[in-house]
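Morning. Coffee machine broken again, so started the prediction first thing and wrote up yesterday's gels while waiting. Chain of 490 residues, entered below exactly as on the submission form.
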Amino acid sequence: MGLTTATSIAQSSLAAISAEAAVLSRNIAGVNSTGTYSEKTPNLETTVDGGVQLVSISRAQNQALFDSVLSATSASATQSALSGGLTTLQGTVGDPGSNTSPADQLSNFIDALQSFETTPSDQALASGVVTAAGNLVTTLNTAASTVQQVREQADAGMASSVATINNLLSQFQSVNSQIVQGTATGGDVTDLEDTRDTILTQLSQQVGISTTSGPNNSMSIYTDSGVTLFQSGIASSVTFQPTSTYTAGTTGNAVYIDGVAVTGSSAVMPIQSGTLAGLATLRDSTTVTYQNQLDQIANGLISATAETFNSGGGTITAPGLFTYTGATGMPTSATGLAGLIEVNPAVDPNQGGNPDLVRDGINTNFNTGNDASYSTQLQNLLTSLQANQTFSASGGIESSGSLSSYTQASVGWLEAQQQNVSNESSYQSTLLTSTTSALSNATGVNLDNEMSKMLDLEQSYSSSAQLMTAINSMFTSLITAVTAINGSAG
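Came back before lunch.
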C-alpha cells in the first residue's frame, strides 16, 4: 500500500468518524426533544481504495407500534372530551345523598305534600309545599340550563378542534413536501420524518387517523372512518359552522371533510375517536338524552298536577300547581319543558299568590264548602304523582313507571355514564402510556448505548490520528532522504 493510498484511507476514516459523531450528538440532543425523536444511525460503506464513507442516515422505526400510539391517543382524547362535559352535568345531581338532584327535590316535594294532606288547615305546611315545589322547579331549570351550556361549550370545542386539524394538515403538507423533495435528491430527511410523526400524533388527538406510505416517501392520511384527510400532497378542507346559542331541540351543525359529513345524524362516514368525535357525541347524544329525561320529568309534573274541571258546559284540563312559561293550556310537546316549568304564580306568595289554593284548587274552587280541613284535592295530587306514567323512549331509560322511579333512573343513568367514561378513560390512559413506552424503547435513544458508541468513536479517532501521524512521519523521512540524495548527487 502506498503512502498516498494510506493517507486517503486515514482521511476518509476521520471524515466518517466526524459524521458518526455528528449523528451521535443529534441523538443525545434528541433525548430532550418535546416532540417525536427516533434514534438515527449513520450508514457507512467501503470505498474502492479501502476507505469508508457516509452514504446515508436512517432512523429507527416501528410502524405497528406507532399506529398503536396514534390509536390510543385518539381513544384517550375521546374519553377526555366526554369526561369534561359529564363532570359538569354531574353537578346537576351532586354527590349521592347531597339532596341536590331532581330525584331528591321530588322526594322532598312529595313529603311536603303528604304533610300538608295530613293537616290541610296548616298554612305553614301549605307554604312548605310551594317552597318545595319551587326548589324542584329551580333544580330542573338549572339542570336544563347546564345541559345547554355544555352543548354550547362542546360546539365551541368542535370549532377549535376543526381549526387545529386544518392547521396541522397545513403543517403536514409543508413537511411532507420537503420529505418528498429531500428523498428524491438523496438528502437526510430523518428529522423531517420525526416532525411529520409529531404532527400525526397531534392530529390523532383531534381525530382518529390511519396512514399509508407512497414509494416517494410521501404519506396519505385517512380518518378512522375512511374519509381522506391528505392525499397526493394535498390536504382536504375540514369545515364547520358553529352554533353559538343552544336551546332544547337545537340541532348542531355537522363537520364536513371536503363536503362529506363526519359528525351528526347526517354523517355517512362518522368519525369514531379523537377530541372532535368525543365533543360531537357529547353535544348531539349524551346531553340530548339527558335533556329529554329532564323534559319528561317536567312534563310528568305538569300532567300529574293538572286540574280537570267543568267550564262553560265543557270539561277543561289546565296546568295546576306546575305550569310553564307562556302557558295557554296543557303542553303539546315536552321539548324544553325542563327549562320552562315554573310554580303557578297563583299559589306563590312571592308573586301575590295564595298557597292554600294548592288545597282548594287553582283554576276552580274544588273546596266549595271552604272547609279548612278539606284534603280531597291533596289526596288526588298525591295519587296522581305516585301513579304510573308513560315516558318517551327518547330519554333512553324506562318508558313506564312512577314519576319518582323515572327521576331516580335519570340520576342513575347520568352517574352510570360518568362511571363508564371514567373507567374507559383510565383504561385508555394506561394503554397510551404502555404503547408510548414500548415505541420509545423500540425507536428512542438509549443514553447508555450512545455513551458506549462515543467511547468507540474516541478510540477509532485515536487510531486514525496515530495512523496519520505515522504517515506524516514517513513522508518527512522520505523527503529528508530524497533531499539528501539530491544533495550528494549535486
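Residues 3-59+444-489 form one domain. Going to sketch it on the whiteboard this afternoon.
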